[in-house]
Amino acid sequence: MVKSIFFKLSLIILASEAITLTLLSFSKKIYSEPLVPATSDIYVATGNTLYLITISLAVSFLFLWIVRKKVIRLEYILLVLKSLLCCALFWTSSSLLLEGTIYYRGELINFVSIILFPITLYIFWKKFTIPNLIITIFMAGSSAFLIKLMFSDLATGLLLVGFSLFDLYEVFRGPLKHLAHSLHSSEISLLLVRVEDIEVGVGDLLFYSLATGLAYSVGGEVLALTSIILVKIGVLSTLLLLERSKMLPGLPLPVLLSVFATFLASLLS
Asked: What is the residue-wise DSSP string for 71-121?
């Protein structure tokens, strides 16, 4: 059972990582510095991580409040938000990569971004398995690309470590634990990737890809390949531990293994 789940999940993660690495390799020719150079400062990078964790915690509590008060079905909110996010990711990635080249067509990018909204909304609403998975993989990979493009290596590393530790809190003590008990998986299926009996958060895919993107930025293709392997080792370890527990955080083992290897490589280089 674990072997089958691990194989399928590894392919999904690998696809997301491939998108991130492909986009980063293109952007490397255009952007030699992070789009937010201030994040190279340790204090700015730390503050940025704490700020994003605080936002994530606030959103988790907001979702929990919505569920308990039954203001509106959480599924409806997620449908709209995920579709909007997909359009924004396509527009931002396309604009950043193509602007200033002969391939840039602003009107076409805007048109496709707008058309994507009703298309993705329909796909998510009808829960078409394969199209949904493809779009989710694209969103995770492109999100990781944009984060790495914006932030310095230092800021990205701190972000990965910070959210890995935050994931421990969220699963065992935070709002996510209460949400998991309050909701059926179908209500938050848009935030999950289901592989047989295992559900993995879309955010986990994002951070796996971001860890590999950081490795690529620090040490090139060889370190990126090392990160890909270490992420899979961490995922396999988590799956084996999951046989003894109903719910475990997906980030700490895969991400921290990759970040540690990247940090070690940066010290030795």
From this structure: SS-HHHHHHHHHHHHHHHHHHHHHHHHHTTSTT--HHHHHHHHHHHHHHHH
CA 200 vs CA 79, 179, 235, 254: distances in Å = 18, 15, 10, 13
What's the token pair of residue 126? 């009808």
Looking at the structure of the chain, the number of domains it has is 1
Note the pTM of the prediction, 2 decimals: 0.93
Q: How big is the chain, counted in residues? A: 269
Look up residue 133 and give its two tokens. Answer: 């998975």
d(C-alpha 232, C-alpha 146), whole Å: 23
Average pLDDT over every residue of 135-153: 96
Direct distance between the N- and C-terminal alpha carbons of the chain, in angstroms, rounded to an integer = 41
Q: Which domain holds residue 253?
A: 2-268
Here the tokens at position 247 are: 């719910």
Q: How many CB atoms neighbour CB 161 within 10 A?
A: 18
pLDDT for the residue numbered 154: 95
Amino acid at 228: I
Q: What would the pLDDT profile of 222-231 be if each residue is shown by its tens digit? A: 999 999 999 9
The encoded tokens of residue 197 equal 């009996």
Q: Which two tokens stand for residue 59?
A: 């959103």
Q: Cα(22)–Cα(27) distance, rounded to whole angstroms?
A: 9
Task: Give Rg (Cα) of the chain.
Answer: 18
- The answer on pLDDT for 169 being more than 80 is yes
Query: Which residues are CB-contacts of 131 (< 8 A; sequence separation ≥ 6)?
Result: 123
Three-state DSSP state, 105: coil
Work out the number of other CB atoms within 10 angstroms of the CB of residue 108.
12
The model's pLDDT over 98-137, given as tens digits with 9 standing for 90+, comes to 987 888 888 999 999 999 999 999 999 998 889 999 999 9
